[in-house]
Amino acid sequence: MDGYVRPIAQTDPARPDGARALAGGWCWFDRVELLHRGEPPSVLAASELPGDVLDRLSRPRAPLLGLDWTRPAIMGVLNATPDSFSDGGLYAAQADAIARARAIAEEGADILDIGGESTRPGADTVPPQDEAARVVPVISAVAAVGPRISIDTRKSAVAEAAVAAGATLINDVSGARHDPAILDVAARHELPICLMHSPEDPKTMQQDPRYDDVLLDIYDHLADRIRLAEAAGVPRHRVLVDPGIGFGKTLAHNLALLRRLTLFHTLGCPLLVGVSRKSFIGTLSGVSRAEDRVPGSIAAALAAVASGAQVLRVHDVAATRQAVSVMVPLMKTGGDLG
């Protein structure tokens, strides 16, 4: 179909006959916004879509790691680094990282995302051996007793070591651009991988980022990343996508992505969104310290839930889980949480 198709997500209980579930989840749609570069958008009935496009938008996403996407999954963040933007290296020591990992599990995280390299603006690259040394002992200590383990890395060697230690999901903020061999690791171990949009160098990514059309440029980028993953042997049903809020984006870029987030469901993959404690929340709220941005983080996360996002990557697991546990029943038009 010519153009980009964005489903207009609804959660109202007055769901009309013929409306379709968005990605098989808690939102529904009966209209879509048709987007073209350089042209005003238009709205048309979902019933006017070609069958294959409508199927991709409404088909339930395949379960991954035992998650069936009947509610948003909570991914808890653990930065085993000395220079994280959000916690200032509180968990750089191995014992502290392991204790924090267990606490995140107790707070109810569905996935624990462990990273050993900061990718905040201005961050330097960490050698693979140093990064692995930070994360592998933590993964080994909690893999058997905690939630599903995700390794947050751009490097194939680190991913390989983390998988050997018990990680079952790869979360690559570079979208496999930094080290394309990371796709081979996912393919060989038959593991899911999350591909995020970001500029290639975290150190310079916030220096005057520009796009022709931020929404469509990032959609095209992720579509290309999915094709590369499939070519490497990772099927689409094992790929998650993340538009990379806050990575090489201005406030206007971030808001444009969040307002039309549902476009990314057209890719046919589970959608992961990470907004927790990010600087755009501080800009909007006037709150400078990252750890004080919890209310704004939850507001942004719930906006993503209202757009059907299947995974929320957060620092404040218990607070976010409580908010989601209240919001999802209010949105669902039938059934229960499963």
- Contiguous uncertain segments of 5+ residues: 334-338
Give the % helix.
25-40%
Instruction: Report the β-strand fraction as a percent range.
Output: 15-25%
Query: What is the succession of H and E elements?
Result: EEEEEHEHEHEHEHEHEHEHHEH
Q: Please identify, by name, the CATH architecture of the largest domain.
A: Alpha-Beta Barrel
- Classify the secondary structure makeup into a structural class: alpha/beta
Oligomer: single chain
Overall pLDDT confidence: 92
Would you state the CATH class of the largest domain?
Answer: Alpha Beta
Question: How would you sum up this structure, described in words?
Answer:
By secondary structure, the chain is an alpha/beta fold. The protein has 2 domains: about 5-60, no CATH class; about 75-330, Alpha-Beta Barrel (TIM Barrel). It is built from 10 helices and 13 strands. The strands form 3 sheets. Strands 11-10-9-8-7-6-13-12 form an 8-stranded parallel beta sheet. Strands 1-4-5 form a 3-stranded antiparallel beta sheet, with no helix packed on it. Helix 2 (about 95-105) crosses helix 3 (about 130-140), helix 3 packs parallel to helix 4 (about 155-165) and helix 9 packs parallel to helix 10 (about 315-330). The protein is globular. It starts with a strand and ends in a 7-residue tail after the last helix. About 50% of the residues are buried.
